[in-house]
Amino acid sequence: MTDTRNYTASEILAVLSSRQLTDGQVVFAGVGIPLLAATLAQRLDCPGLTILFEGGVVGAFVEPGKLPPSTNDQRCTKRANMVLGSADVLLLLQRGYVDVGFMGGAQIDQFGNLNSSFIGDPAHPKTRLPGTGGGNDISSLTNMIVAMKHEKRRFVEQVDFITSPGFIRGGRSRAESGLPMGGMFRVITELAVFGFDDTDRRIKVLALNPGVSREEVQDNTGFDLTFDDQLGTTEPPTEKELATLRVLDPERLFIG
Amino acid sequence: MTTGVEPYVQLREKLSKRDRSLREKVMSLEEATKFVRDGDTVGIGGSTMSRTPMALIWQLIRDRRKELSCSRCIISTDGDLLFGSGVSNHIETSWFAQGILWGLSKVMRHNVESGGARYDEWSHMAMGMRYRAGGMGVPFLPIRSMLGSDVERIRPEAKEIDCPFTGERLLLVPALNPEVALIHVQRCDAYGNAQIDGLQFMDIDLALAANRVILTTERIVSNDQIRRAPDQTKIPFFCVDAVVEVPYGSAPHECFGVYEPMLAHMDAYVRQVNKDPVGAMQDYLEKYFYEPASWNKYLELIGMEEVLEASRRGRSIYND
Fold first, then answer.
1. What ipTM goes with this model?
2. What's a Gene Ontology MF term here (chain B) (predicted)?
3. CATH no. for residue A103?
């Protein structure tokens, strides 16, 4: 099959993620694709979307071509509505003011748990990764959208270490652990859009991205996948979506 | 596992012995770091590569302090330098890398994976609530995150309870009252009334929690200036034990409204230490930390062009 796609993997991640957001929501966004996708949604269909950053910014306003290098950076505050302390902006999550948490992921498992802390045994780690940052708080306290690259080594049956909880061991284990609210809502990759089963809480493919087969998704996943009964195909990014996105990141720092 | 939480009477006693009078506290970097003793717990202000009290860390490394147990809301290359110099063998934080732009820290990895140093991971909010509990004078605060995760499993210092009112599961995180806090601000007066522009991170709770506070500032202003905008004062003078005026005191990190990160220096630093997290780190410390005769000489080594370019970017953010 000839690849006629006119967008990069990061671009489809950003566009499909932005479509998951709805106007009026309050979104806690991480740096990179999440920040871009939330801003894209704001520019297209969700002018009333509010973006929060863990550095303490409420109502962020990201300017085209001036993307902050982290969410704890002075550029994040420009034209924001409010600047809080880091603990206070995280407490907004705990109180319940935030609809959606939106992050990238390094490693994810079948129950949507994320690992950004250790490869191997935490007591004698093979690799010590950076750690949670705000990830654990965001995923514990809100509904999560994760945008990430689809690779077999990233999509594993069970993560080595649960840094940011999804549905933990599935079923009711998340609520029973003391996390009655939130959980994984969507995982977006360049291959497919995933949701989670209402009962066993395992990840399942909701829709295949344009030109992607079931086999391709399965071959890039480290465990057996379930496909939704009403498996769909996502609409390819529109010219308008791509054009707006590219204006936001003219240097292609995050869109590749 | 000890939590390090101090009994209330002891905590109050330490505070009661501090000189909280309205007096001038301006001194040099060398004098200020005498407030830090080997083995102290040290809270570091700012976050990632923003408002890092780099000049104080620079001086502590030159002083060859030992076995400092450090905490910070998010740590980046300052953590590398503390581990690499041997000044600290223990860091508590939620995230430790060289910065989003540069990814994993090979220096952190080398030190932690070889077993020589500890990086104790807490959630970001847990760190904030630990400083807040410390600043409130209570031994813990309840939070609703970390539960069910492995971040909780490897932190036996945190305790789960069932809420006495609702029966819900909560996690109690222990107060953090560092012996010393190191904080860099845009401006303060000679007494230590400190004004912070932009992101304040966890610095206010940290200042209230610590038993001693060393402040570096981009500039010292008069008390009259502070009184013109008292709502901008974020740390009160009676929390502060030392004031040092250090222009570019966060270099090569950023200070809101004054300069952005010195990216060329940071790039070169990361390239150097990633190749060899031990030898190249020693070379870096030698050249930038041990050899220069003063902080100004250190800035000179980073390079005037780089410093001014960072200033241009930092000051122009709000221009349009």
1. 0.95
2. glutaconate CoA-transferase activity
3. 3.40.1080.10
